[in-house]
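Quick one:
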Amino acid sequence: MTDTISTTPAKSHRILSIDILRGITIAGMILVNNPGGPEEDSFTPLTHAEWIGLTPTDLVFPTFMFIMGITTYLSLRKFNFTWSKSCARKVAKRAFLLWGIGLAIALLLTMIRGAVHPEEWHGFGDMFAHLRILGVLPRLGICYGLAAVVALSVKHKLIPWLIAILFIGYYIILELGNGYAHDSSNILAVVDNIVLGADHTYKWDTPDPEGLLSTLPALGHVLIGFCVGKAIMNLKDLNDKIERLFVIGAVLMLAGVLLAYACPISKKLWTPTFALTTCGIGSTLLALMTWVIDKRHRTGRITEFFHVFGVNPLALYVLSDLILIPYSIIPFFSKQTLQQVLFKDVFSSFLPLPWASLLWACICVMTCWVVGLWLYKKKIYIKL
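Output:
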């Protein structure tokens, strides 16, 4: 899944809390993406807001993208934010690998499901004809690539203005294009259907939560992380970094909440207020964790648990998709999968459904953690 495997960690001056918070987001993404049963069987905080609103689950992915913006600053700083062949090759390779891996996983899961249920299999041609082109990993690849191009091509003092243009432009699109409708008349769905085709979008909701137009505010989201990275990494004193993170977090959250009166907070639309609010929460969390972990040196088993996810984030996230094959697709027990047996026949027999669903999700998280722990102990860091 990657092009580089290193056995020694790269030297970096970034604070440990960045890796820990990134690990929390990856563990959270795996947890909420793998419930034991239908969404209605899960605890409400472990499900996405149906349309407008914000739940703890809605914070996970945007926090990871916020952290990606910070680490993009750190990685490009090594090239002095100047174009070169090696820099361009690294940016292009990472962006396309993220997108390509996402597509490859979707194809693999479709093929395995077709082999298990041949009555539903209509051949490779049909598989490609209904392949979702966008998604979580493609969004990461697109936003990283575009953010890197901006960081290398635009004066950094102009980036906040670019973010404002992206947010205001997207808000106008929503206002003029029936952008708050939860159906196919939404301008986001209209554009996706015209450009990508209805067969290549998310089949379980409309519009696609990772669609084309919502990439605009998502790019602004990553660029906010980049600006935060620049703001704190140029400070030498740790106390100054913590203070600035708290101030930035408070300003962003306040702006997001106040502007929500005009532009509702919605992950599925990735509204500008959603980006502002979640980036503000991410900055505040990072400030708090920096104070606890990097200043007061309060580390232990909990921080080490999430550090395992933080040093190999994308590898373990991809693994969480791949374990669906033995866990949830291939039947082993009288035409039942391991998930069906454990969740329906075992866990649900002595636990309420929300707890049974959570227990199964924890099994998925721990499976990935065990693999990550082995990599961590061997000091193997898989990088794109």
